[in-house]
Amino acid sequence: MTDRLKHKETAALFTLMVLGREVPNKELEEVVGFTLTGPERISLNKLGYVESDRTGPRRSFVHLLTDSGWAWCEKEMAAGGPPPQRGQSPLASALYVLLGGLNGYLQRENKRLFHVFGTGTGTPDAEPVVEDAPAGTLEERIRVAYRELVKEPRGWVGLVDLRPKLGAPANEVDAVLKELSRAGKVHLVPEDNRKALTAADHEAAIRIGGEDSHLLSIEAL
């Protein structure tokens, strides 16, 4: 069950989710008829769902959905929304039926919300470049690719840089990385600087322990 948010907060999160990039207050008002300011902005910032910065000559707010915000949207969709109440808008009820259907599709196709909406800072139609796969098992290829990319012993390598060198489907890479992580052979962690993450970084991330990890380190090569 997700944190139950106010209607405006929920609307803001879903809008930022669909737009999939930094959104100024002016654009929010043009798209959905309201801005994210005051207690709603403060609440979403404190919860860690939205990052808000003042930009431009008028120092107006620009908002970006965080990884935690994406996770909240996924959980909210899976939860099916609040129980129907007397006087509840039929449109709100229908929205959650629609979101539930989208969630079912994502589950069947083993996709994440970011695969659908998180293209605001990337190129949605670009096919990922996959290099010819080196010989050996997938674990061996991971180690080879890590050695080629790492700049210092036990350094961190971005999964966005590692994956194209493996020549394997994402789900197969995920399965091997999770097994290596459970065995303590590799370390997977999130990127601390969320603002530095691109759409490609989000897509290359692996879900470990309820959060997305973007970086890999291998102690013994």
Notes on the protein architecture:
It is a single chain. The model is unreliable at 120-134 (pLDDT under 50). The chain is globular, with a radius of gyration of 20 Å. The strands form 3 sheets. A 3-stranded antiparallel sheet has the order 1-3-2. Strands 4-8-5 form a 3-stranded antiparallel sheet. A two-stranded antiparallel ribbon has the order 6-7. The termini are far apart. Helix 4 packs across helix 5 (90-109). The chain folds into 2 domains: 7-117, Winged helix-like DNA-binding domain superfamily/Winged helix DNA-binding domain (Arc Repressor Mutant, subunit A, Orthogonal Bundle), CATH 1.10.10.10; 138-217. The protein is built from 10 helices and 8 strands. 23% of the residues are buried. The protein is an alpha+beta fold. Helices cover 47% and strands 13% of the residues.
Quickly count the helices.
10
Oligomer: single chain
Q: Just give the CATH class of the largest domain.
A: Mainly Alpha
Number of strands: 8
Distance between the termini: 42 Å
Mean pLDDT: 82
CATH topology of the largest domain: Arc Repressor Mutant, subunit A
Shape verdict: globular
Radius of gyration: 20 Å
The helix content is 40-55%
**What does the largest sheet look like?**
3 strands, antiparallel
Q: What structural class do the secondary elements suggest?
A: alpha+beta
CATH architecture of the largest domain: Orthogonal Bundle
The CATH homology group name of the largest domain: Winged helix-like DNA-binding domain superfamily/Winged helix DNA-binding domain
| SSE topology string | HEHHEEHHHHEHHEHEEE
Number of self-contained structural domains: 2
Could you give the order of strands across the largest sheet? Answer: 1-3-2
Percent of residues in beta strands? 5-15%
Low-confidence stretches: 120-134
